[in-house]
Amino acid sequence: MEAAVNAAKGQVRSDDRTRLAPASPFQFTGKAGEYFKIWIVNILLTILTLGIYSAWAKVRRKRYFYGNTLLQESAFEYLAEPMQILKGRLIAFAIFVVYLVVTSLVPPVAPVLGLAFMAVLPWLVVKAHAFNARYSAYRNIRFDFRANYGEAVGVYIGLALLAGITLGLAYPYYAYRRSRFVMAHSGYGITPFTFSAPAKAFYMIYLKAVLIAILGGVVVSVIVGMLQAGLAAGEPGKVPAYVMTLFPVFVIVVFLWVWVYIKTASANLVWSNTALERHRLRSTLKTSKMLWLYITNALAIALSLGLMIPWAQIRTTRYRLENMALLTAGDLDDFVASQREGVASAGEEIADFFDFDVGI
Amino acid sequence: MRALKATYYDGKTSKRQEVQIYFDNPRQLRVSGLAHELSFSLSEVRIAPRVGNTPRSIYLPGGAKCETTDNDAVDRILEHRRSGGWHAFVHKLESRLGYVLLALVITVASVWGFIQYGIPAIAKQVAYSLPPAVDTALGKGSLSALDQAFLSPSELSEQKQKELRAAFAAMTRDLADEHSFRLEFRKGGAVGANALALPSGIVVMTDELVALGKHRNELVAVLAHEIGHVTHRHALRRLLQDSATVLLIVAITGDAMSITSLSATVPTLLIETKYSRDFEREADRFALGYLKENNINPRHFADILSRLEQSRPGESDIPDFLSSHPATKERIKAFQSAS
User: How many residue pairs from chains A and B have C-beta atoms closer than 8 A?
Assistant: First the structure.
């Protein structure tokens, strides 16, 4: 291990001279047609087994996406076993059924259950990240995630409450601490990731988002106002109803734009400030392109009654990965594996089932 | 036999080493190209199942592995050993377009069939086996919630209320049904002319609907329809069916989206309105049966329905598949043809 660390240092020194580190882009080789077949067979077997196969389906889907993600010609690998996932899913399913029954028979209990879910959220976050990291590997070295529950409570409950109390003023700080929590506790083998984005940068993103929202609001009001004035001038008192229905459509477009901007800018910020030793990641997603992907995906999925879901997933993943690169300082040969430690899938599956956003 | 080109990772560091794998003995695997040649019995080696054309891992004892992109060669070796197992079967399914299309047809047909017949039949069985006390629990607080949100006290004359309550009591008296039926009057306001049945057996009728009725039997027909909802346990069945639908959609598409995503809600909404229309038809059939049994002309229901439709212009423009009620014309026709 010492030899490996020394070797790594040696490479760092030799690369310092060049300054500009060579970029190794991530490659995604998944194909929509090929994935469609895997997806439809997954659905078929899931139905025939009354949902039990869904655990195997998840493993095949994950293995397809991981296996088609290449960095310097080596593929990523998803290593979770379907049986582990099935156990987690059964627990999540049981909780969901209890929740459905209880909330429909005793509706006032719903907010209490909601609070209970909030309380276990930090635990879910830690477990879900640990599960995903430890069953993901690259070059036969597994990723890792280690964080203590106390810190998770501080971030996911303490700071979330602070963001609420300050009417959102502390929200960018909360987003910053969430990303830092996830990234700084992740590792590749025994090597930790480092996270260097400043909190200020998150504030800049949200400030810009607010400006986009205001600007969008003004533009929409002007357009609708002009339409109304123009039409009323021709025939006083008779503004067609469709002008008023246009208004919410414009508002939705502005909201979507703001939301996609925040997602995209945050992803770029977080990834581009994450490093593994001297190797830095770089993410160069564009808001306009992401917005285009989301809108066309939604249209294609709706018009094809869901059959275009595989196509949508493949093209979105391709765009995301092709705009991600590792700025390498030397080769990637000297990372050392960590002790193997299992983790149960329940946290990941519950978070997955209820769609808790445990991402960065 | 030719060598299989692969990359070797020892599992201790991330170092890549290009190697060749030989299967020159049917029970042996030889890894060549490292400092020392490695040799393993095939029974010690685990080969990952194939997924599409992703690189294939061959896990060696002691934590090392080889990764190869030559999936077909690995498959040939596995076939030779006859140990592909059901993973190989799944891959075969995935790689033949014919099977895939067959899978697609079976999938769509079985989902459709289950939604059309399976879920309603199961929900009916479950609902009928539960005591009416469940309905009472389900409807607890519904009326006060409605009062707070939409309805205001009735302005109907005592006389009229008494008359209709007597008719309602006569209708429910001989019913083999343990629900505690009760008729309530409210001013509809924004709700307009309407009648609704709460699961516990309370039927609410708005002043506006009473005013719309030109003949006493028209209101009796509406009450029969609402009693049909209660006695056929529609509220409980709706709850069961809608929950089952959500679970089904999530189980199928869970791979692709989560409960809260918009695309998953659209199909559930469409299915829920379909179930709602089926319940309306069943309540209509109950009303028709009641009217015939009591020698009341079914025309009366058709009359008040068409007046209701006229009182709410624009609603008939909603396409059938989006609406919670069947097209009024279709319902009117059913009663007219029975008269």
Answer: 142
